[in-house]
Sequence to fold (344 residues):
Amino acid sequence: MIEEKEPTEEQNELFEHYQLTVDKGQELIRIDKYLMNRIMNASRNKIQNAAKAGNILVNGSAIKQNYKVKPLDNISIVMAYPPREVEIIPQNIPLNIVYEDEHIMLINKEAGMVVHPGFNNYDGTLVNALTYYLENESPTKHLNPEPLLVHRIDKDTTGIMLVAKTEIAQTKLAKNFFDHTIERKYQAIIWGDPKEEKGTIEGHIGRSLKNRLVQAVFPDGEHGKPAITHYKVLRSFGYVSLVECQLETGRTHQIRAHMKHIGHPLFSDTSYGGDQILKGTTFTKYKQFVQNCFKLIPRQALHAKYLGFEHPITGEKMEFNSDLPLDMQQLIEKWEAYSKTKSE
Fold:
C-alpha cells in the first residue's frame, strides 16, 4: 500500500517521495519489478537509478536493485520528479553560467525568466535556453542533452540555480533536497524592521483558499505542507530592511508567504501586498520617493544568494555565491541615503 506521495505542483524542490508497506502475503520479487507495479509511470530505469543513488530504503537501510522484497518490508523511495509533457524547443538565449562539469551546471538566473515551459510560457524559459546550450555549445554536449531540473526559483527571483545533466546526478540531488542537506540562503528587502534580529518562521504553506494564484500560511497545519524559514536582519533602514533567509524546506513562494505572515512582505511584491506603502510617513515627498523605488524594481526584491551542497558524483563540498543584482543594489543605496537624511 502506498502511504505517501510528495510533492505535487506546490513545491519548488522537484522530487517524488513514496512510502510503502509490503503486504503479508507478498511473494519474493525483485524490488524494481515490485515498485514498477505499484508506482504509476515509474520506469524500470528510473527505479534502478534510484537504487544506484542509494535512494531506496528498506526498513531504514539502502538496498541494491536486485533486492527481493519480503512481507511487511517498509520501503521508502525518492525519485527525481518527471518532466512535464511539453515539447522543449531549443532557443539561443544568453545564459550566465557560473559552473559546469559533465554532471551539473550552476546558473545565475535573471529576473523575468520562467524556469520551465508551462501554461502561458511555452518558450523563452530557462529550460529552452539550457536545451539549446547543451545541444550546441556545451563542452560536454555529447552527453544527455536534456537539462534535468532538481528545483525551481520564481520567475522574478534572481540568483543561483542548480541543474543536473545526467539522470544519476539528478536522482542523487533529488535525495539531497529531500534530506535537506543542500544549504540555500536568499537575500530579500522587506517592509519594516523585525523586532528580533534573528528568528525562525514555521507554518504549513499551501495554495490560498481565497486566491489560487498565491500561497498562504496555515499555522495549525490543517492545510499545506510543513515549511521552515530562518531569517536574520543584515541591515535596517527604518522603513525597510535587508534580511537573509535560509530555507530548510522548499515550498512554492516560501519566503514571500512566510515574510508576509509575520507582517514584513517583500518590497515591491505585487502578489503578497509588498507593492503598497506599508511603513513610513504620509508626506507627499515620501510617497513619491517610494513610488520611484517601485519603478526601480518592479518585482519582488528577492535573490538566491548562496548554494552549498555535495557534488552528486564526486562528493566534493561545493559552494557558490551570487552578487545582488543591480536593481537590488540600487534600491539599498536609495534607502540608505534616505535613512541618513531622516537621521540628520
